[in-house]
Each structure stands twice: as structure tokens, then as C-alpha cells.
Amino acid sequence: MERSKRRRSMEKGSELRSIFLPFLSTSHIIPLVDMARLFALHGVDVTIITTPQNATVFQKSIDLDATRARPIRTHLVNFPAAKVGLPPGIEAFNVDLPREMAPKIYMGLAILQQEFEQLFHHLKPDFIVTDMFHPWTVDTAAKLGIPRIMFHGASYLARSAAHSVEQYAPHLKADSDSDKFVLPGLPDALEMTPLQLPDWLRSPNQYTELMKTIKESEKKSYGSLFNSFYELESGYYEHYKKVMGTKSWGIGPVSLWANQDASDKAARGYSKAEEEKEGWLTWLNSKPASSVLYVSFGSMNKFPYSQLVEIGRALEDSGSDFIWVVRKNENENDGDVFLEEFEKRVRESGRGYLIWGWAPQLLILENAAIGGLVTHCGWNTVVESVNAGLPMVTWPLFAEHFFNEKLVVDVLGIGVPVGAKEWRQWNEFGSEVVTKEEIGKAIALLKEDEEIRKRAKKLSDAAKRAIQVGGSSHNNMRELIQELKEIKLSKAQANP
Ligand code: UDP
Fold first, then answer.
1. Is residue 293 located within the same domain as residue 253?
2. For residue 329, what pLDDT band results from cuts at 50, 70 and 90?
3. How far is it, in rounded angstroms, from Cα 430 to Cα 438?
4. Domain for residue 263, yes or no?
5. Is 381 in the pocket of ligand 1 (CB under 6 A)?
6. What would the pLDDT profile of 265-308 be if each residue is shown by its tens digit?
7. Number of structural domains, the chain?
8. The domain that contains 403 carries what CATH number?
9. Which pLDDT band, with edges at 50, 70 and 90, does 336 fall under?
10. On the CB side of 338, how many CA atoms lie within 13 Å of its CA?
């Protein structure tokens, strides 16, 4: 009797309470919230702290989890828009944010820091998981005497590649900006050009300093979490842990794991999937298996009109049916006529379906009619394509996309590059326009390559195994939670 009482109280004492603090941008919020939901699925009590506008990205998912009696909730903190001179509701780095407003979002975030810290003290978590862009949380966690786990929105390969450039500066030895160099010290001989590197790695700027601070905070953290899985990039997973000297857990694919029901997939992001189903789903269901290309460039990108025309023409010439997720450019009205006529033409011929703004990507990718993607290599999309077993035409644009392309094309052999040459800022057009011939050639190569399809399918099977009991991500999750429980218990025993 006494023993079982003690065990029950031990078990109770080891129930974990956590805080998750995402960054203020859609594609960082989505995977971190999926992770938070996975911790709740494993019985950890979770509070996600964010601002009202940013909560709209995921609140529907949390509401669904509440109906499943999962211990998870959102705690809203108002964004100090007026204090930093922003209109109400502008509180995220997203595609519609005017460039000059971006520094004000950072200012607002700095103001919020104190409130976040107070909440951490008030809510008394046993550990915190915070986005990489909140490096200060490592000191707060130290003050509270609890582990801080840092969430990386990227791949192990991308982080390893950035580390290689920081350490060896191989691009400085290239003869010109378009000359190839090899990234030193990595498991594979990956080649890039200086123009494909993010600007902050090419030459130091303010962002380089921020990334240094983030790295230092990571080294002082309990460990890091990635939306990746061992079988996807095992060499880079091991390499990264070695060079950083830190613990890290790949617990992906988190979208596959956290969004098992169609209702979860439909609830994600800004989607009005239920209302729109009649359109895209009916169209997609009328197509043969693996015949449709899904063309999307993530949540942050806008192309200039000249580039939209090249994409449209390439798709029309490709002979493939397609879903194209398009975003208009408010400043360039001259593109409207082309896009309107294009949409009318491809609808009438049944060749294509345009989705304006936001697509229910998870639902679309799992549809049997989809045969491949044209993607910007955003990490979440790469992982989601791998889940779905789909090969990719790769068209990296900004952030760490060019590194992700190396993984997809050179390491995994599941992608065909359009041959993008130039990295650019997420909120700039850059000078490169990829021609319809280049796009068309990559699509044609993708279509005729049977092996690429087989490799993608094999990886999809590995992804599904990773999240099952005994799979690599499942084990990582279990072990991490166990470690965190032991830390809590030993603290309790030290301070009875
Ligand atoms: N996404 C979506 N519909 C869209 C655009 C994006 O569901 O129309 C989701 C996508 O599934 C992924 C995330 O938003 O989870 C985009 O992240 P990614 O890393 O691929 O690209 P980013 O938005 O950072 O460029």
C-alpha cells in the first residue's frame, strides 16, 4: 500500500509542465506548434505563448486537441504595436509585411521580452522549448534552474553547412561569385557558389551577429530539437551533434505525427480547406494517380510579374496538369491581366488549378493524384514532400534553401534542380529570373526519372516508420521526455 502510494506520488511528481515560445513567423510557428502538440500527446502539460495575430495560424489545431482532452493551451500576450509605431494586427514577419516595418517587429519583440520572462516565472515550467530567435531565453532558463531546448527551423545539413562556412570561409577562395567551391568537413563533398550563400555568411552583417548569439545560446542550452528524422539525414545529424558538442533530437516528421486526422490537416495555417474543398479537391480527384504537379513557394515568397509569366508558360508547355499556389503583387497591376487570362485558360482546358494565397498543403500532398512538386526547398515543405513520397523540382530562393537543395538533390537523389543561381532576401525580388525553358527542362527530367520516384517512395516509408513505436523519432521523443522527468525528480529530491 505504502509502496504504491509512493510510486503514485513519484509519478505525479514527474508530470512535466512546459512552455513553448514560437517566433513570430508562420513557417517557424507551424512546426514548433506541431512539436508542442506532440509533447501534449505524450502527456506533457503545454502552454504556448504568442500574440493574438500569430495565434490565428494554429489556434484551430489547439482547439481540436482540447476536444481530445490533451493538456495544451495558448496564452496570449498583446503585441505592443502602438509603442513601436505599427498599425494594429501587424505583428509577424510574413509575406505582406512592408520591408520598412520589419525592424519594428523586432523592437516589439524586445519590449515583450520582459512580459515573457514574467510569465515564465509565473507559470513555473519544468522546461521550456523556444525558437532559435529567442536566444535570451537561455539565461531565463538558467535563472529558473530549468532546461531550455532550442528549436531549429532548419535541417541538420543546413546547420552543418552554415557551420562549415563560418569555420572555414571556403567561399573566399573562389575565383568569382559564380565559381564552385566545396563545403569543407561535411560527410559529402557538397558544391556551392558564393552567390548561393546567404548574405550573412558571405560577409558579416547585423544578422551574422544575431546568428552568433543564437549559436552561443544553443551551446548553453540543454539541447536542440529539429523537425527531421534520423534516416533522412543521419550523417548530418551525427556530424552536427559532434561539431556543436550539444545534444539534439530529431523528432520529425512532426506534421505527419501531429496531424493524423483530416481535420488536423485542414485546420492548419490560414486554410479555409473545408469551404474550398469543392474546388481543388473535386478537380484533383478527377485526375489520374501521380499525374499532377504541386507548385508552391512557401509562406513568405512573392515573385515579380516577369517571373510569374515564366512559371505560367513553363507549366502550360510542360504537358503536366498542375496546382499552382499564386500570390499577387499589389504593386504590379500589369500582371493581373496575364494571370486572369491564364487562370481562365487552364481552368477551361482542365490543365491547371490556381490557389490564391494559402493552400491546404498537407491535404493536397497526400492526394493520390499528386506526382511531384516544384518547391523553393523551405524545410517544412521538403519534410512534408518526403512524408508524401514525392520527388521535387528544386528552386531555392532565400534563408537556408540552397543548403536544403543539396540534401534533396545531391544527398538523397529525390530532386531535379531548376538551376537557381542567386540567394536573395525573403522580402526582395533579387535580380534572377529563371526562364520557362529552365523550369520546363527540370519538370521534364523529373517526369521521366523512375528511379527518383522510387527513392522518394522509400524515404516516405522510412518517415512513417520513424514516428511509430520503436522508430527513431519516437525513441528520441520518449528518451527526451524521460530525461526531462529525471531532471525534475532529481531537483525535487535535492530540494524536498
Ligand atoms: N504552407 C501551407 N500552405 C501554403 C504555404 C505554406 O500549408 O500555401 C505551409 C507548408 O505546409 C509548410 C509551411 O507552411 O508547413 C511553409 O514552410 P516552409 O519551410 O516550407 O517554407 P517558408 O514558408 O518558410 O518559406
1. no
2. confident
3. 18
4. no
5. yes
6. 988 888 665 556 678 999 999 999 999 999 999 999 999 999 99
7. 2
8. 3.40.50.2000
9. confident
10. 17
- The reply to whether ligand 1 has any atom less than 6 angstroms from the CB of 137 is no
Q: Which ligand 1 atom is nearest residue 357's CA?
A: 8
CA nearest neighbour of 322 among 357, 284, 289: 284
Please work out whether the CB of residue 58 comes within 6 Å of at least one atom of ligand 1: no
124, 187: one domain: yes
* Nearest of 179, 173, 182 to residue 195 by alpha carbon: 179
Q: Residue 373 forms beta bridges with which residues? A: 294, 392
Same domain flag for 250 and 331? no
Mean pLDDT of 4-24: 74
For residue 492, how far is its CA from the centre of ligand 1 (angstroms)? 41
| Residue 303 and residue 279 share a domain | yes
Are 479 and 471 in contact by the 8 Å Cβ rule? The answer is no
Q: Which three cell numbers stand for residue 223?
A: 539541447
Range of the domain at 315: 270-462
Residue 308's alpha-carbon distances to 141, 363, 436, in angstroms, are: 46, 25, 10
Question: Is 0.85 surpassed by the pTM of this model?
Answer: yes
| The pairing of beta strand 223-226 with beta strand 321-326 | unpaired
448 or 328: which carries more pLDDT confidence?
448
Residues 202 and 301 in one domain: no
Rounded Cα distance between 190 and 201, Å, is 16
Closest C-alpha among 146, 108, 150 to residue 21: 150
Residue 316 and residue 224 in one domain: no
66-81 mean pLDDT: 97
- 225: amino acid identity, one letter: L
